[in-house]
Fold this protein.
Amino acid sequence: MWSPSRPNNHPPQPSAESHPNIPAPRNLVFMASRQYNEGSSYIGKSLVIKGELSGSEPIHIEGRVEGPISLRDCHVNIGRDAVVMSNVEAGEVIVRGIMHGNLTVIDRIEVQSGGSVMGDVAAGRVSIECGAHFKGSIDMRRPDPKDHVETKTKTEQKEDSVDESQHSPVLVY
């Protein structure tokens, strides 16, 4: 039966705003997560890439990648369905899927539960959760102390040596 409040034969759909206790539909949750990761590139489950990946933006991998990955200062996320068969250079790596190859990471690598890494790791910080698989060696790199100390120019060093000679005590026997 038709009524002005229901012009079609379809029942009214409650909105998430009118009922805060009802969870948002799955497609809206997916859209929200895609907006959060909008700045990164996405390699989907059905994609297979054979070759070199390089660039300067973050990447999320769910498919298969065979070949070197060089994203020096960027975040690489290896998803649950991903299979990566390559050496990776990145700023930060999170592994939830399968990773075969060596990892050279500036900041940190995190192998989450269900993730697998087979290869050597060189990073500043390494985290391996319970339920993760790791086979290889770990090189925990320390930050280079020379990077934090400013070097003096030759004129500054010369001035310092002159000042020291004028103020240093002289012992006479």
